[in-house]
Amino acid sequence: MTSLTQSPENILAFLTELHLESYYDRFIEEGYDDIEFLADIQLDDLLEMGMKKGYARRVIGKLNRDLVSNSSTSAATGETKRNSDQMRQAPSVDPDEDLDNLPIAHEVVALGIVDNVGRSNAASSSSSSSSFDFNSMKKEIQDQMEVEFNARLEERLAEERIARERMEQEHIARMTDERAAIKKEMEVESSKAVAVAVEIIKREVATGTGETKEQSVLSESDIMARVEAAGNKITKKYWNGVYYGQMEGGQRHGYGTYTYVSGNKYVGEFKNGKQDGNGTFTWDDGEKYVGEYKNGLSHGQGTYTNANGTIFHSGEWVNGSPKKINIK
Fold first, then answer.
1. pLDDT tens for each residue of 243-294
2. Are residues 265 and 208 in the same domain?
3. Which among 99, 132, 165 is the end of a domain?
4. Are 280 and 224 in contact (CB under 8 A)?
5. I need a labelling partner for 229 at 20 to 30 A (CA). Which of 3, 12, 128, 175 fits?
6. With contact defined as beta carbons under 8 Å apart, do 95 and 109 qualify?
7. How many CB atoms lie within 10 A of CB 275?
């Protein structure tokens, strides 16, 4: 076994043997930069340095063993007197005094490992070895590790709990903002619908008819305004295009816009999934129909304009075709 004087030449090597090299900087800061200085260290000194109790006892145990080895080697080589001069004379020890608080040399004497002149006492050495409870030290280390593990686990659980609460709060805030935005949008659309209705009534009154009944055929601008002002519009994709407007019972019903994949576009009224009422249909080549629809076909009063601006037919339509005029 390595003696104290035969221990590693520096503190780092000494701590490395005990797998405690992480405490090297603390030892240097406390002034223990020479291996010989450890002869005066106490258990409390190690604890004040922040060392765990189990590790501190490991250091004390190694220093005790090194001193025993040093004393035995000196007696075998006839150098007992010279080595005893190098060791400081230990004072008498009170049997009731806590051995953990004694300097290392004092503790060795108190345990009967070395007598006051530095001679080795084989029987006392054997007794001290048996008195050092490695199982107790192992249990202390295990208990300390369990405490640290439980503390880390509790900290991790607390962090996860805080993160969960933060996510729930953010979700509630996001839902509140979305509801507020939807409500505001519905209020705006409702206001537009009211404004359009009022404008139509004013226009009808201005014509002098005195009637508030809506005209059977609306202009293109009126149709566009009604579609724009309609509330509760949704977007739905179909195989041949995209619909944006009102729905009822899963079908297009009310005001809306249907944009076909081909480029054609219908803006106006729907009923049970088909164009029905006033609407405007624009083909991708520029041709346009503005008028009444029924069951998906132009039916009633309407005007068909060619791409060059000339009117193809303006008047009555029946099932998608201009009404024939019988000439006698």
1. 999 999 989 999 999 999 999 999 999 999 999 999 999 999 999 999 999 9
2. no
3. 132
4. yes
5. 175
6. no
7. 24
Condensed to tens digits (0 to 9), the pLDDT of residues 103-136 reads 444 444 444 444 443 444 444 444 544 567 788 8
Dist CA 186 CA 178 (whole Å): 12
Are 199 and 262 in the same domain? no
CA atoms within 13 A on the CB side of 208: 0
Instruction: Give the residue among 36, 7, 12 at the shortest CA–CA distance from 23.
Output: 12
pLDDT at residue 101 in the model: 47
Counting beta carbons within 10 angstroms of the beta carbon of residue 159, is it exposed (0 to 12), middle (13 to 18) or buried (19 or more)?
exposed
In a domain, 80, yes or no: yes
Asked if 120 and 71 touch (Cβ cutoff 8 Å), the reply is: yes
Residues 20, 107 share a domain: yes
**Residue whose structure tokens are 């202390």:** 140
Radius of gyration of the chain measured on its C-alpha atoms: 50
| CATH code of the domain in which 310 resides | 2.20.110
Let me know: does 87 contact 81? Beta carbons within 8 Å: no
Residues across the chain: 328
Contact 236, 247 (CB under 8 A): yes
Say if residue 215's pLDDT is above 50.
no
Instruction: Tell me what the mean pLDDT of segment 301-317 comes to.
Output: 94
Distance CA 198, CA 191 (A): 11
Spatial contact of 118 and 80, defined as CB atoms under 8 Å apart: yes
Q: How far apart are CA 198 and CA 60, in angstroms?
A: 97
Domains of the chain: total: 3
